[in-house]
Design goal:
Elements: E1 5-9, E2 30-32, E3 47-51, E4 53-54, E5 62-65, H1 66-71, E6 94-95, E7 98-99, E8 107-114, E9 126-129, E10 138-147, E11 171-174, E12 177-182, E13 201-203, E14 218-225, E15 232-236, E16 243-246, E17 258-269, E18 274-277, E19 280-282, E20 287-292, E21 297-302, E22 315-318, E23 324-332, E24 335-346, E25 351-355, E26 362-368, E27 375-380, E28 386-391, E29 396-400, E30 407-415, E31 418-427
Parallel strand pairs: 1-3, 19-24
Antiparallel strand pairs: 2-3, 4-9, 5-8, 6-7, 8-17, 9-15, 10-14, 10-17, 11-16, 12-13, 12-15, 18-20, 20-22, 21-23, 23-24, 25-26, 26-29, 27-28, 27-30, 30-31
């Protein structure tokens, strides 16, 4: 069934993102939104324009876009009650193939990936030209997939009214999708047959045998050692016929399809990431540990506690009370890197050493862990009167006590009028 006319325009200009070689990776850049209003002859087909992407055969992948919801208003994120009388739209989050929020941005693409009992006639593909041709190096390609809820071309999702009693949400889950790369654009295939090419990349999720999650986005990825100069790629199902039935009707696959939502496609060279960090802090302060590079997955933990994951992003903030070594493990497809960083913690409690104490003619002050910027030293007698005040310029200095009456004094170290440490001094003559 031809669902939509999937029109794309490939731009020659490259995007600013030099790490991900995929142009318009989340399908956010459009020439226009398909509809501003529902046309009187609306049938559910969408006519739209996505920059930088193309379709290599007569298939018609769908753009699911927030602009449908923005321009065609539905009550409570649901289709209107009369929706069962005609095909539904390509809106978000509910659309004619299911219900899903974008993994990134406001758009994603949907395509038919498998049709049993039809020799896969009608399988759909999307493709694009890379920002730069590949070099003779190792690359990692990834995308986010979500299996659509519906089994066929009927409207699959309504909040109100409920679906008809005979409506089934069964669908087919595949083991993977694949990617074919080429140095030149493949010729347009003026039919609905599967593309006759051997893919070099298999996009799989290592935690799932089948890509069967209809609720969440699944990260899939595959590795490729480039020959060099590859600059076109095409994504879809080239050879996968291993499936399982998901849903409430598993008696037959007649009429079933495998339909996947796709978002956030990436292709990057596998390189060792760079770890940046604040390696020296004082007790109570925070260090920011940052790993830079193209990475799919992260795990942070203390070196002595590898089973306690502290974070799963590119940045980790830590406030250790003692010197601690942290490990970050990163994964780019099958390539795993481990890096260690030690955060050295000083004891930042100010320390005042006074000698001699009791003092006679002078007293020597030695300071540790004291910031000298805008620091002052003051002395107060037993009734709180200020008897001495001066700017601190060195960690060790002396105070003449010959002019002070014998008795008990308080030495105060302050910074910007805030007391940092105090110590008692006894003066004897």
């Amino acid at each position: 069934m031809r669902k939509a006319i999937f029109l794309f325009y490939i731009l020659i200009a490259t995007k600013a993102n030099a790490q991900n070689l995929i142009k318009n990776p989340s399908f956010e850049e459009m020439s226009s939104c398909p509809y501003d209003t529902i046309p009187t002859n609306y049938t559910g087909f969408s006519y739209f324009y996505i920059e930088d992407w193309t379709v290599p055969n007569d298939g018609s992948p769908d753009l699911m876009s927030q602009c449908f919801y923005d321009t065609i208003l539905y009550d409570n994120n649901c289709m209107p009650p009369q929706a069962w009388t005609y095909s539904l739209t390509n809106s978000l989050p509910g659309n004619w193939q299911g219900f899903q929020y974008p993994q990134n941005g406001k758009n994603y693409v949907g395509l038919i990936s498998f049709i049993p009992n039809q020799n896969n006639y009608g399988i759909e593909y999307i493709g694009s030209q890379l920002i730069n041709p590949l070099n003779n190096k190792k690359y990692c390609m990834s995308a986010y997939l979500s299996l659509a809820d519906s089994r066929n071309m009927l409207a699959p999702y309504l909040c109100s009214p409920p679906p008809p009693e005979n409506y089934s949400t069964s669908c087919l889950a595949l083991n993977s999708l694949q990617v074919y790369l080429s140095t030149t654009a493949i010729p347009y295939q003026n039919n609905f047959e599967p593309l006759p090419y051997t893919p070099q990349i298999e996009l799989k999720n290592t935690n799932q045998n089948y890509l069967n999650d209809t609720t969440n986005w699944m990260l899939v990825y595959g590795e490729y050692s480039a020959i060099g100069d590859e600059q076109y790629f095409y994504l879809g199902n080239f050879n996968q016929e291993n499936y399982e039935i998901i849903g409430d009707d598993t008696s037959s696959v007649n009429g079933f399809v495998s339909y996947y939502y796709i978002d956030n496609v990436s292709l990057f060279e596998v390189k060792e990431p760079l770890l940046k960090a604040d390696t020296f802090i004082c007790n109570g302060d925070t260090a920011t540990l940052t790993i830079e590079g193209d990475v799919l997955e992260y795990w942070w933990y203390e070196q002595d506690s590898p089973n306690t994951i502290l974070g799963a992003g590119s940045t980790l903030k830590v406030s250790p009370w003692q010197t601690t070594t942290y490990t970050v493990k990163t994964k780019s497809c099958s390539v795993v890197f481990e890096k260690n960083i030690t955060v050295t913690v000083c004891n930042n409690q100010p320390v005042i050493k006074i000698y001699p104490n009791p003092a006679h003619d002078f007293v020597t002050i030695n300071l540790q862990n004291v910031d000298l910027d805008n620091s002052m030293v003051s002395m107060y007698n037993a009734v709180g009167q200020l008897v001495y005040k001066d700017t601190i310029t060195n960690n060790q200095f002396s105070i003449n006590t010959t002019g002070l009456a014998g008795g008990l004094y308080t030495l105060d170290i302050s910074q910007v009028n805030e007391s940092k440490a105090r110590q008692k001094i006894v003066v004897l003559h």
